[in-house]
Amino acid sequence: MRAYIYDNEPTDQRLPHETSPSQPISVEALNKLGVLYWNIPVEGDWEQEINKVAEERSYKNRDTINVSKEGLGDAYESKIRSFFEEHLHEDEEIRYIIEGSGFFDVRDVELDQWIRIAITPGDLLVLPAGIYHRFTLDEANNIKALRLFKDEPKWVPHPRSAETEVNPYRQQYLQSRGI
Ligand code: KMT
Ligand code: NI
C-alpha cells in the first residue's frame, strides 16, 4: 500500500495521478480519517489471519470479486464507471487484495482533497461508513479482492450530493473525526 495526494489532472483515471514531487500520506494520517490498514502477506496462511480479523471485528460474511473484463463481462464498463463516482456507504467497505492492483481514492475530511491509495496483494483496507471515496483499476486492468461484511452487504452507493451531506452516517462519520 502506498498513499499520496492525488494530482487532480483530468487524464485517464487508471494513471497513478501522483504529484511531482510526491506528497506521501502515512498510515497514521489514514487512521485519522478512520481508514484502517493491515498487511497480511498472500504467501502465508492469509485465510487464517483474515479469519482472526473477521472474528475480532465481527465480519460475518464475505465473497470474492474479480474486477476485470473477464470477471465482470457485460457489466464491465458500467461497473468501472460507477466505482469511480464519488460516493459513500452506510457501512464499512472492507477489501483484502488477493491478486492484481488498483486505486481507492478517499477524501481528506478537512481539505476535501483526494488521497490516492495504491493497493496490491496482501493489503487489507477498511473504509469507514460515511467517508467519500471511489475506486479504479490501474493500467493492468485486473484486481481480485475479498469483500468482507459485518452483516448483509449494504451495496448502495450514495453519490455525493446535498442529500449525502446530511445523511446520518455522514454526520456520524464527521463527528467521529471530531468535526
Ligand atoms: C467497490 O465497491 O468499489 C469495489 O468493490 C471495487 C473493487 S474491490 C477492490
Ligand atoms: Ni464504495
From TrEMBL:
Binds either 1 Fe or Ni cation per monomer. Iron-binding promotes an acireductone dioxygenase reaction producing 2-keto-4-methylthiobutyrate, while nickel-binding promotes an acireductone dioxygenase reaction producing 3-(methylsulfanyl)propanoate. Gene3D superfamilies: Jelly Rolls. It holds the Pfam family ARD. Pathway: Amino-acid biosynthesis; L-methionine biosynthesis via salvage pathway; L-methionine from S-methyl-5-thio-alpha-D-ribose 1-phosphate: step 5/6. GO terms for biological process: L-methionine salvage from methylthioadenosine. Keywords: Amino-acid biosynthesis, Cytoplasm, Dioxygenase, Iron, Metal-binding, Methionine biosynthesis, Nickel, Nucleus, Oxidoreductase. Fe(2+) binds at residues 87, 89, 93, 133. It catalyses: 1,2-dihydroxy-5-(methylsulfanyl)pent-1-en-3-one + O2 = 4-methylsulfanyl-2-oxobutanoate + formate + 2 H(+); 1,2-dihydroxy-5-(methylsulfanyl)pent-1-en-3-one + O2 = 3-(methylsulfanyl)propanoate + CO + formate + 2 H(+). Its EC number is 1.13.11.54, 1.13.11.53. CDD domains: cupin_ARD. InterPro entries: ARD, ARD_euk, RmlC-like_jellyroll, RmlC_Cupin_sf. It comes from Botryobasidium botryosum (strain FD-172 SS1). Residues 1-21 are annotated as: Disordered. SUPFAM superfamilies: RmlC-like cupins. It is found in: Cytoplasm; Nucleus. Catalyzes 2 different reactions between oxygen and the acireductone 1,2-dihydroxy-3-keto-5-methylthiopentene (DHK-MTPene) depending upon the metal bound in the active site. Fe-containing acireductone dioxygenase (Fe-ARD) produces formate and 2-keto-4-methylthiobutyrate (KMTB), the alpha-ketoacid precursor of methionine in the methionine recycle pathway. Ni-containing acireductone dioxygenase (Ni-ARD) produces methylthiopropionate, carbon monoxide and formate, and does not lie on the methionine recycle pathway. One of its GO terms (molecular function) is acireductone dioxygenase [iron(II)-requiring] activity. The keyword Nucleus applies. This is Acireductone dioxygenase. Ni(2+) binds at residues 87, 89, 93, 133.
